[in-house]
Amino acid sequence: LEVYDAPEVPLAIPPLLEPDQETATDAYYTVEAQAGETQILPGAKTKTWGYNASLLGKTIVYHVGKHNHVTLKNSLPELTTFHWHGLGVSGPYIDGGCHAPVYPGEESKIEFTLHQPAATTWLHAHPCPSTAEQVWHGLATMVIVKDEHEESLPLPRNYGVDDIPLVLQDRRFHENNQWDYREDYDPDGVQGPTALINGTVNPYFDVTTQKLRLRILDGANRREWRLHFSDNLEFTQIAGDSSLLPEPVKFTKLMLTCAERAEIIVDFKDYKEGDVVTLFSDDVPIVRFRIHDFTPDNTVVPDKLIDLPKEEADPDLPVRAILMSGMDEEVMLNGKKFNMQRIDATQPVGKAQYWDITNSNDMVGGMVHPFHVHGTEFLVISRNGHEPYANEHGYKDTVGVNPGETVRILVRFAQTGVYMYHCHIIEHEDGGMMAQIQSY
Ligand code: C2O
Ligand code: CU
Ligand code: CU
């Protein structure tokens, strides 16, 4: 990551997607994938794609228990799919993997009701094998799941004011401020030197409250983010990918791998009007928080956030071994490349099973593979037999597996269907480090 020499601009806050219609029990939405142009840098606009917007998209909010009817509209010049990363919906048609194409100029309709804890999730394109290129064009947006339990807690939740989405991506700007995926292509993941935060470069955010809740999503194709604030400011992580954490965790540093999310609370009590608190990744400033006057906020983050049901692996199910191997074009999952016609594994619906995920890369210098499962939330049980990280005690759907490491997770599918699982370095996924399981 490098500093890009451009003026500071206000952080883009995506508007919320308004339902077309809403009753006490049902909500109707239209999500349209579209091509457009976005003024990101001074000078030429950048050609971009987005959902209900020219770049990235509007933020979607779903309420647990409500029945959602979603029209998926493709106004792009090529086919796409609409994947709900982190939603517990049945796969693969509703969940929007490569089995669910929507052709240019066409639309399709899905319906689902969520039964999962409040979480920060996302929507992204998933047509195999051009997921990576479509996400690079901008097809990714935040999806917030709300439930009554989360709403009963004293946490910031005023969207755009003290509850802020932060979609972390990186790009390379070529001539005329354009992105060029093919030119920048790397089978181990495309990266660019410029941080793009909610689609803005060099953003600042005007802080008007003592506490800020940041919903951070690593929406990059390949990049890991190593986050910290100026003054080594301590912050509190309250949620991971798919639920609140049972207990909040205090940190001064946070690492996210591709597709992982973290919700953190930053308390600016020691700052005053005119101060600036900078968020860095690897020592490059990525967002500047400009402090304004705020009224003191004495609320305390509860030390218990959620009770997760105790779950055990079904003793009748053997441990499932999953091997992520190779680099470049050689990436594979369990020695094979993805084939949509092939079901690689099965698991009875409603039964929990241990999955042992191994990254066969060399301990030194190898890549971290972020492992993701569709349509469910899992628990991280151990890393090489040791306790998982302190912020891995809630539900997750993506876990970084370090070189030479085996991570044990506990997976249960609540619904029947076919679900993909893969490395979330998106070029690895497109390159075949992916498989599918049928829950029956
Ligand atoms: Cu976030 Cu299969 O994807
Ligand atoms: Cu997914
Ligand atoms: Cu990978």
Structure, explained:
This protein has three domains: 9-148, Cupredoxins -  blue copper proteins (Immunoglobulin-like, Sandwich); 163-291, Cupredoxins -  blue copper proteins (Immunoglobulin-like), CATH 2.60.40.420; 320-439, Immunoglobulin-like, CATH 2.60.40. It is 5% helix and 41% strand. It has helices at residues 131-137, 148-151, 181-184, 426-430, and strands at 9-10, 21-22, 26-38, 46-51, 56-57, 60-63, 67-74, 83-85, 107-113, 119-124, 140-146, 163-171, 194-197, 203-207, 211-218, 225-229, 235-239, 244-251, 254-256, 261-267, 276-281, 284-291, 320-325, 332-333, 345-347, 353-359, 369-373, 379-383, 398-401, 406-411, 417-423, 434-439. A six-stranded mixed sheet has the order 1-14-22-21-16-19, with no helix packed on it. The mean pLDDT is 97. Bound molecules: CU-O-CU linkage (C2O) and copper (II) ion (2 copies). The site of CU-O-CU linkage (C2O) has 10 residues, from β8 and β31. CU-O-CU linkage (C2O) binds at residues 83, 85, 124, 126, 259, 372, 374, 420, 422, 424.
Short structural description:
This is Multicopper oxidase. The protein is built from four helices and 32 strands. The chain has helices spanning 131-137, 148-151, 181-184, 426-430, and strands at 9-10, 21-22, 26-38, 46-51, 56-57, 60-63, 67-74, 83-85, 107-113, 119-124, 140-146, 163-171, 194-197, 203-207, 211-218, 225-229, 235-239, 244-251, 254-256, 261-267, 276-281, 284-291, 320-325, 332-333, 345-347, 353-359, 369-373, 379-383, 398-401, 406-411, 417-423, 434-439.
